[in-house]
UniProtKB/TrEMBL annotation:
It is found in: Cell membrane; Membrane. The keyword Membrane applies. The chain crosses the membrane at residues 6-28, 40-58, 93-116, 136-154, 222-240, 246-266. This is Zinc transport system permease protein. It comes from Salibacterium qingdaonense.
């Protein structure tokens, strides 16, 4: 890791994000909770700005913004689950409440923090060249932890995502799984923000899953297609952003959006082709 160039660090980070983020997106899509990713990304921005503020004003306290971002994201995800329970008949209110509070606090902290525009730009829209050794280490650790948790509890997470009442009746500990779901969501958002950017991480989580829904005929196929599309989007976005001097997060999201558009355009064409073959 010590001998990697900045571009190699960025590509490794992007590959890790391209695998985990779409996987999280499939579970959020099944739960019909994709907007949670956008809400938590703004809460993560609150944590980032708080970390920059603390580090700038209290230099004797070593604070890394990525860690404060993760802490705020986890707290926000847990609070969303609490609000969903409080507003059982209006669960869709939970995400906008958190999103609004996150934006407001972020604006306050950013106005107080002694930081330049370039640093905020990297956090908001991502930058492949800004992934340092410490950032890559954080991304690799969160990637390994989230991968292990997905592997150990994937069946339970899928069951709860499809049918919470059925999962509760079958004996699954709902509080544990919901906390794990919140923890994983916070991990994925935190590990993605350095490359994709806080404002665009929700799109990387949602767009590959949206494209995969048009192609998959089973949940396993949905997961595989989401990962393939996610990896294709991050690789295309990182390489194009480096050679064309574009925002990394924007390039990745535009690549994912173009893939989704191509899938939506191809689906009716393929349906006509198959229908004509069946007629013959």
């Amino acid at each position: 890791m010590m001998e990697l160039t900045f571009l190699e660090r960025g590509i490794i980070a992007a590959l890790c994000i391209g695998l985990i983020a779409p996987l999280m997106g499939t579970l959020l899509a099944v739960r019909r909770s994709s907007i949670i990713a956008d809400s938590l990304s703004h809460v993560t921005l609150t944590g980032i700005s708080a970390g920059v503020l603390i580090g700038g004003t209290m230099q004797f306290i070593p604070v890394h913004p990525l860690y404060t971002g993760f802490a705020f994201s986890l707290a926000g995800s847990l609070f969303i689950e609490k609000l969903r329970q409080e507003y059982a008949s209006f669960q869709e209110l939970a995400a906008p409440i958190i999103l609004s509070a996150g934006i407001g606090l972020s604006a306050v902290f950013m106005s107080l923090a002694p930081s330049g525009q370039n640093e905020w730009y990297d956090y908001l829209f991502g930058s492949v060249v800004s992934v340092g050794k410490g950032d890559l280490l954080f991304i690799l650790i969160t990637f390994i932890v989230s991968g292990l948790l997905f592997g150990l509890f994937f069946k339970e997470l899928v069951f709860v995502s499809f049918d919470q009442e059925g999962a509760a009746v079958s004996g699954i500990k709902m509080k544990t799984i919901n906390f794990l779901f919140s923890f994983l969501t916070a991990l994925v958002i935190s590990m993605s923000m350095k490359v994709v950017g806080i404002l665009l991480v929700g799109a990387l989580i949602s767009l590959p899953a949206a494209a995969a829904l048009q192609l998959a005929s089973s949940f396993r196929a949905l997961v595989l297609w989401s990962i393939v599309i996610g990896e294709a989007a991050v690789l295309t976005g990182v390489i194009s952003s480096y050679h064309l001097s574009l925002a990394t997060g924007g390039s990745i999201v535009v690549s994912a959006a173009l893939i989704l558009g191509a899938v939506l355009a191809w689906k009716p064409v393929s349906a006509r082709i198959f229908s004509r073959r069946n007629q013959l």
